[in-house]
Predict the 3D structure of the following.
Amino acid sequence: MLTSNGPSSYNMYNGLKNDFDISHVIVEGSGSIKTFLKKRVKRLGYIRVFGQILFSKLLLPFLKWESKQRVHEITETHQLQFEDFDLDKKINVPSVNSEECIKYLQQINPDIVIVNGTRIISKKVLNSISGIFINTHMGITPLYRGVHGGYWSKVNKDEHCGVSVHLVDQGIDTGGILRQGLIETTTKDNFITYTYLQMAKGCELMKLVITDILNDGPKTIKNNLESKIWTHPTIWFYLKHRIFNGVK
């Protein structure tokens, strides 16, 4: 696995390790928040990024509190597991795009690299080994590339609320689609809990994809959806759609 620390990555690892031999887990560092914000401001502008920060600082704590019981319910129903990676398999690197990461990948030389929660992987890294890189994306690609695909699907009131497992290329969630699946939500679900439902579906799909690859090699599918990229909602956008459209 090539991953970061976090609930989604822990759940993917624990969900797969009893069915497949995960030889190593390369974990990248979190990186500089200041650098991350500078890049986002350059791309989206100060006002929009300010609204996203307000959402994270003011609304996320409330949403997490509101979701506590539902998160517990989803975790129990789908047997999500958030224990840390096994230490004897864990390798820390500063970034997935570092020379250190390339060195470890070439030493291990895996046939399949399961990507989860990392920054965009460079062409140099993708070409450093002959194995394939596969990623779980929390959204139906290519329509919901970027972040929070479940939430944006609810805002748009369409049926594409789900998860994709795809090959990794240099783009943002643009690689060939291997499998996709939809999640079932209830009126109890919101911005936070969509992700937990997607974690469960993503692990289920990843198991099928790995089995597909081991049996017949990777086979991509097409759904002919429009390609769009989405980012984090601002505080005012979220409140508008929650109050007037009931999208939590």
